[in-house]
UniProtKB/TrEMBL annotation:
This protein's UniProt keywords: Coiled coil
Species this chain originates from: Mucor circinelloides f. circinelloides (strain 1006PhL) (Mucormycosis agent)
Annotated protein name in UniProt: Uncharacterized protein
Stretches assigned to coiled coil: 14-139
Domain of life: Eukaryota
Length: 139
């Protein structure tokens, strides 16, 4: 028996190696496709994370603006109370008559109501913006 392979055996071995090489190429192609898919998913997750961070930052800003609006509203209430107190004092001293007092109070009340309405409108606008951002983040 000879240790050398016959040409037929060599061809069969070569065909087997070629077949295995094709299988390896297919597996590599599949792995590359899987890698691309994972990379795509990671990019999508990164975008959602960035969007979430942006929304969280916007939410903090909206909360700060809402707190500022509430402080302004409280300051306004204090000013109205002070104005009413001063008006009562002036009225007691006879400096203001009832008609002037009523007119002054009506002006102050209108100004206060306008400011309150404006602040409420701003708060509602910010709440809507926040809801829109959260809905956008959920998508």
């Amino acid at each position: 028996m000879s240790t050398e392979s016959s040409p037929k055996d060599t061809t069969a071995s070569l065909n087997e190696v070629t077949d295995r090489l094709e299988l390896v190429k297919e597996e590599i192609k599949g792995l590359n496709d899987d890698y691309d898919m994972v990379q795509s998913r990671l990019r999508a997750v990164d975008k959602k994370l960035e969007k979430s961070e942006s929304i969280n930052k916007e939410l903090e800003e909206l909360k700060a603006e809402e707190a500022q609006s509430e402080r302004q509203l409280e300051q306004l209430k204090q000013k109205v109370e002070k104005t009413l107190s001063l008006t009562e004092q002036l009225e007691e001293k006879g400096v203001l008559d009832d008609d002037a007092t009523d007119e002054l109070l009506q002006i102050k009340v209108r100004e206060t109501l306008d400011l309150i309405a404006s602040l409420k409108e701003e708060v509602e606008k910010k709440k809507k913006e926040l809801a829109d951002l959260q809905a956008e983040q959920d998508n």
